[in-house]
């Protein structure tokens, strides 16, 4: 991790009591992520990183929110290292039974069964920052909406939908893929969501992926209802005081503290529901933690619920610098 990110993470982790449980299974890295010797201190002697596509044995799991795994990394000094579960996927994981508690099992029977979600995450993209900086140029050219932004065919000055993700705490980040059913959206729904999920201007590949991986794990809406609710939730963020402030500063830098102050006007604990993700100092996404019974409009208060989390966990890729650049659409 770059040194500039350490103060933020140490601040977030200060005062937190960590507890872990022995676990077994296989972790398959999908990214090259920092591997920490100490989770609390975020130390990484030897600058160890996971290798995308490589498998590692799981040894422990953080039981506070199940978002960190301790894996074995052969070939390095001090090979037992902590990595965020979001850095990859877990296969065949089971936890040893601690005293007085039942073991936690991760299996297809639980983590791929629809209707068991206990919360949601709304992932809201700042498309210019995502296309220009989050993706490397080869991947950016593969996405038609990014090509259209670069050419000027599209001009996006509002937040867009990455996804609405049902979560189940005991599955960590692995609650998903509950069905292989493809989307079949009505023309009315497509017209409503295209401005807010611009890939639909050109194809349905990304929307189909989000539906099969995430949307099929909730049971109270069909695909039309799911995407409409997700887009309405994005519009709630976009039209809020937070969204208006960010959009008023396109092409400029904003202070992270200012964003948090705006959120506190909704609720003192509202900042705990929000994670701002950057590439360098450039915003590319906001992730919002939502209760299972969230209301997608018309205010942030309804979206995050009357009791936002009292604490928050660090999310990989969070903006580490005090000033955050809001990228402008186009060349």
From TrEMBL:
Transmembrane segments: none
Family matches, as PROSITE patterns: RNASE_T2_1 (PS00530), RNASE_T2_2 (PS00531)
Pfam families: Ribonuclease_T2
Keyword match RNA-binding: no
UniProt keyword annotation of Nucleotide-binding present: no
GO molecular function, one term: ribonuclease T2 activity
Signal peptide region: 1-19
Annotated InterPro entries: RNase_T2-like, RNase_T2-like_sf, RNase_T2_His_AS_1, RNase_T2_His_AS_2, RNase_T2_prok
Family recorded in the similarity comment: Belongs to the RNase T2 family.
Protein name: Ribonuclease, T2 family
Origin species: Azotobacter chroococcum NCIMB 8003
């Amino acid at each position: 991790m770059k040194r500039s990110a350490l103060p933020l993470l140490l601040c977030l982790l200060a005062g937190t009591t960590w507890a872990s449980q022995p676990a077994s299974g296989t972790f398959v890295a999908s990214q090259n992520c920092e591997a920490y010797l100490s989770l609390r201190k975020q130390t990484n002697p030897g600058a160890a990183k996971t290798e995308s596509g490589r498998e590692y044995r799981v040894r422990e799991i953080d039981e506070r929110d199940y978002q960190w795994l301790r894996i074995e990394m052969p070939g390095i000094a001090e090979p037992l290292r902590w990595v965020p579960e979001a850095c990859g996927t877990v296969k065949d994981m089971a936890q040893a039974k601690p005293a007085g508690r039942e073991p936690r099992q991760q299996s297809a029977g639980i983590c791929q069964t629809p209707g068991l979600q206990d919360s949601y995450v709304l992932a809201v993209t700042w498309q210019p920052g995502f296309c220009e900086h989050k993706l490397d140029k080869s991947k950016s050219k593969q996405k038609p909406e990014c090509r259209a932004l670069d050419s000027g065919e599209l001009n996006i000055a509002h937040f867009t939908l990455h996804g609405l993700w049902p979560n189940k705490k005991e599955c960590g980040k692995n609650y998903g893929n509950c069905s292989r059913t493809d989307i079949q959206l009505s023309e009315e729904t497509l017209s409503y969501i295209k401005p807010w999920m611009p890939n639909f201007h050109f194809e349905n590949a990304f929307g189909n992926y989000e539906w099969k991986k995430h949307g099929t794990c909730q049971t109270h809406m069909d695909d039309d209802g799911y995407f409409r609710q997700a887009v309405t939730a994005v519009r709630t963020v976009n039209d809020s005081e937070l969204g208006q402030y960010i959009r008023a500063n396109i092409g400029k830098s904003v202070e992270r503290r200012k964003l948090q102050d705006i959120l506190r006007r909704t609720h003192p604990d509202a900042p705990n529901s929000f994670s701002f993700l950057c590439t360098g100092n450039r915003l590319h996404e906001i992730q919002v933690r939502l209760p299972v019974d969230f209301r997608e409009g018309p205010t942030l208060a309804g979206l995050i619920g009357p009791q936002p989390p009292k604490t928050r966990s660090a999310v990989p890729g969070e903006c580490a610098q005090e000033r955050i650049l809001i990228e402008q659409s186009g060349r």
